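User: We ran a pulldown and think these components assemble together. Before we commit to crystallization trials, I'd like a predicted model of the whole complex to look at. Sequences follow.
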Amino acid sequence: MAVYTDVPDDELRQFVGEYDIGEVVSCKGIAEGVENSNYLLRTETGTFILTLYEKRVDPGDLPFFIGLMEHLADAGIACPTPVHGSDGIALRNLCGRPAAIVTFLNGMWPRRIKPFHCAALGGALAALHRASASFTMGRANTLSLAGWRGLFEACRDRADAVSPGLADELADEIDALAASWPLALPSGVIHADLFPDNVFFRGEQVSGLIDFYFACTDFFAYDVAICLNAWCFEADFSFNITKARLLLSSYRAARPLSETELAALPLLTRGSALRFLLTRLYDQLNQTPGAMVRPKDPLEYLHKLRFHRSVAGPSAYGLN
Amino acid sequence: MAVYTDVPDDELRQFVGEYDIGEVVSCKGIAEGVENSNYLLRTETGTFILTLYEKRVDPGDLPFFIGLMEHLADAGIACPTPVHGSDGIALRNLCGRPAAIVTFLNGMWPRRIKPFHCAALGGALAALHRASASFTMGRANTLSLAGWRGLFEACRDRADAVSPGLADELADEIDALAASWPLALPSGVIHADLFPDNVFFRGEQVSGLIDFYFACTDFFAYDVAICLNAWCFEADFSFNITKARLLLSSYRAARPLSETELAALPLLTRGSALRFLLTRLYDQLNQTPGAMVRPKDPLEYLHKLRFHRSVAGPSAYGLN
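Assistant: Here's a predicted model for the assembly, 640 residues in total across the polymer chains.
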């Protein structure tokens, strides 16, 4: 949940006046997105999402994010489409922050993941990767191998206070991953944060993918690994191989995974688990008093990391 | 800002299925209302607000609140109208909480109060009082004179830590108000919390009044006093007599205030300032760690209280 900026009504009216979408009818801060302020904006012509980019998003990255959403929407992916102002510009300023209006997507994100969600997700993720492959801009993944050591060092001294022995376990894990991380796999722009709250469903179909603000250039199979972690574990941290099988088989039906990609899955799921463990650990150790965001539990991802370290090979993920 | 309960999508679908409003299209928690969880609900037939009543609202009061909104809407007041289920029932249960769906109101609440807002507010408040006069249910105001001493006693020991001398000042104020509080003035159901965030505008007109969950039976002029406090002070705590004059004159044009009511205004504004001072003080001293609500400053109302104590009479509010 996050609404950081309260937009005065007269500034909002002036801002919306720069678009051809009619007058503002209502505007309500919504509990969606953690990094930015999001508003459900209704005008005389329709419903939109207004996003104000807060300080955790680098303004230099915004043309990449806006360009990506436009590219994906043009390619038929159900994702927010930036709305251009009367002057043709999509990225503007409001209340001293970069701001954009994007289209509103119907659907709800699933609170309880059922197997059919994972089946539909696999297809949607593969379609996303097929569409992003033709996007020409790029953005380095600062939260992959190159970024882990820095995050870890910022947490190292206090990690054992969160869980005894955590600092040593993380140091060993980073060394192990650094020694064996794939050098080359099919790559392109990945979503990199496709958790359930970023995937809308209507019935059993995916109706929209949102929140592209971690999107970056990386292995497509790493995006698959992120989804295996985010969608295929139960609340008790047990791995649900049925969900994983459905996710992978529907992904492969739309975008085949090579033998090399499949063989790398146990390593990529470990890396992805480590990435979320580290950022959650960092956020927990560096909470701002008064920030209206409840930190997520880093240890959830320690359980997931240990599971992936224990598997014998990619067949653990339900591959046939 | 407050969304306390995360509603699973399947429970929501089942709940909305009990109404004749079509299927759920989307549902987003919104940053509105402090006491309850509110969602902007879109279905195949329209847009609504879904409210889950959290523990600060007494379930025994809900039939009064729901009945009041129905009565006011029938009388032509622009306020949320409860939607009845297929079985005729408006107050239902969702996620173990009382819940209701009400109509959605267009408009935005003003962040910067201008004189025209106060003029429009006065007329809307008078129309509300004229409409509520024929409502037959009642609810005692637990946050008036009878409730202040209890609130104060719960804060007394720690009040001076918030502001030196505050405990004595509050004790004296309660004694003074108890000795002179009006025994009888024209009464009926008042809103009792008509702050700017509960009043929607489109252009210079009031388009809706919301959040009736403090409504109670009390003096109509006390509701006027609450609005004088909430709308007619500047950020530097100076009293804006132009705004007060506009508020009062447009109120009186629609519902005349008797000489007795006018004479009571300095006392009623003091009482209203004390009420918000005490509840804010209590909330500040009793914050729940992790509650996603930023406490409001009690001392804002200490400044207002002192202003009203200093006035020579009702002419201080711009009465002609």
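The two ends of chain A are 40 Å apart (CA to CA). That may be worth checking against your pulldown data before setting up trials.

User: Thanks, that helps.
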